[in-house]
Design a protein that fits this description.
Blueprint: H1 2-17, H2 23-35, H3 38-41, H4 50-76, H5 79-86, H6 89-100, H7 107-124, H8 130-152
Helix pairs in contact: 2-4, 4-5, 4-8, 5-8, 6-8
């Protein structure tokens, strides 16, 4: 099931790219599809724990931001820039986890981050086109939301 979800997530640009929908509309379609099994999964007793309900709400907000920014990035510029900047999320989690989750700081993440950022700068291009930078900012905002989602989960 997880592998199928990952494959479908990777195919969204192909499915929605030719639809003519905006980034926000694409995110709405994605969430509508994801909500289909909700009536069969949730029960009333699941909502009694306020802390868990707030955590689910936070995850929902971060997930919505992730989808909106990601699909807006795909809409505005090169797919490679949108996807690679979205994949900054692991770097953000590696740096934020010691503060939020009290995990040990990773020396690998510290050493790898400049290499990752340099590679991303090469993909965007020296003095990158304005469209690429807007796409990169939207993709990075998506990564920030996805990192928030992971830290709240």
């Amino acid at each position: 099931m997880v592998a199928l979800a990952a494959i479908l997530w990777g195919l969204w640009p192909l499915v929605l790219g030719s639809s003519g929908l905006s980034g926000r509309q694409s995110a709405l379609v994605v969430f509508a599809v994801m909500m289909l099994p909700a009536p069969f999964v949730f029960s009333r007793s699941a909502w009694r724990d306020r802390r868990a309900t707030l955590a689910v709400a936070a995850v929902g907000v971060f997930d919505a931001g992730n989808a909106i920014f990601y699909f807006s990035a795909l809409e505005r510029g090169p797919v490679v820039v949108a996807v690679l900047t979205h994949y900054l999320a692991p770097v953000l989690v590696a740096f934020a986890a010691p503060w939020f989750l009290k995990e040990r700081r990773s020396a690998r993440a510290i050493w790898a981050s400049p290499v990752i950022l340099a590679g991303l700068a090469l993909v965007i291009g020296p003095g990158g086109a304005e469209l690429s930078w807007l796409t990169a900012l939207l993709g990075a905002a998506s990564a920030l939301c996805y990192a928030g989602l992971l830290l709240c989960s």
